[in-house]
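seq as requested:
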Amino acid sequence: MSRSVNWWTRKLHRWGALVCALPMLVVITSGLLLQVKKQVTWVQPKTQVGDLSNEVPQLSWADILEVARHEPRASVDGWQDIDRLDVRPAKGIVKVRCKNRWELQVDLSSGEIRSSTYRRSDLIESFHDGSFFSETAKLGVFLPNGIVLLGLWFTGVWLWYLPFRSKRVRRRRNI
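struct tokens:
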């Protein structure tokens, strides 16, 4: 290979790293937090276990909504305030995930709230993929950043390989 290719590889690697620095800091930091979300309750509440004596859940959808309405921190007035329900029959729990990121874990037998906690994992995930900032940032900054990062990987592998290649070429010349 000519020196020109090696020179351009170094330049691309150097400038690519500079362009990616801030978005990659966001992606790496949020990714690390997401890696430990099951172990760190600050990120995502631990899944509780409800009363498992009943094999069939005893609560109706209306009952679940009523329980959620009675938790002031959840700010639930109706179904429009609930993002999703995560039903875990094997654990006897339904997770009520509110649009304000509050999570209630309700016992499917008694209707008792087993946990009422702020859930940060979805917020952290939106930072991770860039959607927190906007759809434009997600596709216009974070997607190109991923492509540049892939290029950094290739140029980094090439730059790592160059000294080994040079040694081999020098050895062949000396023989």
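The chain has two domains: 1-43+120-170, 45-119.
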